[in-house]
Design brief:
The protein is an alpha/beta fold and 208 residues long. Helix content is 33%, strand content 28%. It is built from seven helices and ten strands. It has an eight-stranded mixed sheet, sandwiched between helices. Strands 6-7 form a two-stranded antiparallel sheet. The longest helix is centred in the middle third of the chain and has 22 residues. The chain is globular, with a radius of gyration of 17 Å.
Length: 208
Amino acid sequence: MHNILCDLLTIGGLNTLLFYNPYAKLCFTSTITSYFRKTTYLDFDTTYTAYTKSNLIKNYTLDGISLFTPNEGELESLITNIVSNISNSSLLIIDSLNSFYNLYYKKIDMESLKGISTIQHTLSNFLMILLKFCQSLRIPILVTNMMRYRKKEEWIKTPTNKRFLQKKSAVMLFVELLSQNMLFLDIITHPTLLPTTLTLDNNNINII
């Protein structure tokens, strides 16, 4: 199991983690960071940040993880600092793509959704810049993305920026909570590993 997790993330494209349960996602991201020397962590949904402030992430240290939690309007001013941290890291986590839109909520009309295509374009450009940078440094990127229901002919489960992720993701994973102490991890697509389901210990979160 240790060898599989060490080889799970690739540098040839995005590594995408899909989830329904935010806690299952949190458990996986807190686990995967323990396999890397240093992680740059962009926390768009603030869950990981809240758990670190409550001392609930067992393997969190200031030396091991550089944590960024941008507020609305702050991302552009943090780019230089983020890139500098990536240069000294061995993993980049972008958590989560769904919450990226919250940074630009003033530019979206929630009734007509006018402006959302511009934000999607901004997100795609942002990911491509970081992907190219990390490829040059041979650093894997893990992005997380909550599955949601959307109405077409019928209600279907679909990730945010589905076309972009399908095109750019070398690895697609799905995580679910089996129990308080166990996770299911589905390897959906991978350049070297066959589709399979792994059972992982959830031992990096302090349960109150």
